[in-house]
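Notebook entry, structure prediction.
Reason for the run: the old model in the group folder had no record of what sequence produced it. Starting over properly, with the input documented here first.
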Amino acid sequence: MVRSVRLYFDFISPYSYLALTQVERFGEEHGIAWTVRPILYAAVLERRGLVGPAEEPVKREYTTRDIVRAADRLGVPLVGPPEHPFNSLAALRTLCVFQDEPRALRLAVRLSTLGWGEGQPLTHPETLIAAVDECALMTAGLAERIASPEIKDLLRANTEQALEAGVFGVPTFVWEGELFWGHDRMAYLADRMEGRLASPEKRGAALAARPRGAERPSVAARRSVPG
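New structure, fully documented this time:
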């Protein structure tokens, strides 16, 4: 039985990289047909009123240590990009050009590995072209395609779809409307698909419906702002 799972991610995220190093093997083991959807994490953070791990000094320091541990545990290389955060738009749009082709997942893995596993700048056109070429995809006119209104709109549409699905972080896996956030939740996804975990819908909704007993003033103020 083949199961369809949508994967939302941004190359700016080291946890997206960690997930992408595992998805091909994971998909083979669990009969998954992946739909890869690059999204702009910064836009998700903005819309959700959140701060990214690299934007808060304490979280940034912790995250750098955490991804080293995670990479070592998974046995995958971790060099990191020359700068972080970096502008991931060009890399995301590159993948958008090919996102519905059979080699889209392979390209996503290669781009992410170049950035996080090999320390190459995903902001440089030559890095993007090299990844596309390695995946036997068409490099001719790539710069023009990346810059086209259609591809820019496609990335926006991917991001809007993610927001509508309830995504607030990357990577997020979506199976039959249920979200699994984080590279370390792939085992939960497998257990859920294969019937080892019951749906959390009813119990989760009941917990979420309980009244708030306390709230920080800044959070209360944000909730009072329309939209």
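Summary: The chain has a mean pLDDT of 95.
The old model has been moved to the deprecated folder.
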